[in-house]
What does this fold into?
Amino acid sequence: GAHPTLDPTQDVDDVVDVYEVPTRFGVADPNRLGVYGASYGGYLTNYAIAHSQRFRAAVTLATISNLETLS
It folds into this structure.
């Protein structure tokens, strides 16, 4: 079954919050942000692009993409 302990909601919120600082100071263009990750970071990236409009590009590596087949 699904793994309820792998709920990345708070982690995605934290990642989005991190992007606020460079965009606020003009260091990053808020319309051209990307995100990437491997392993759990890849799972987090998959979740982020499915639940946020913040990112324009994403790359995952060695990621979990289906919790049903994980176990």
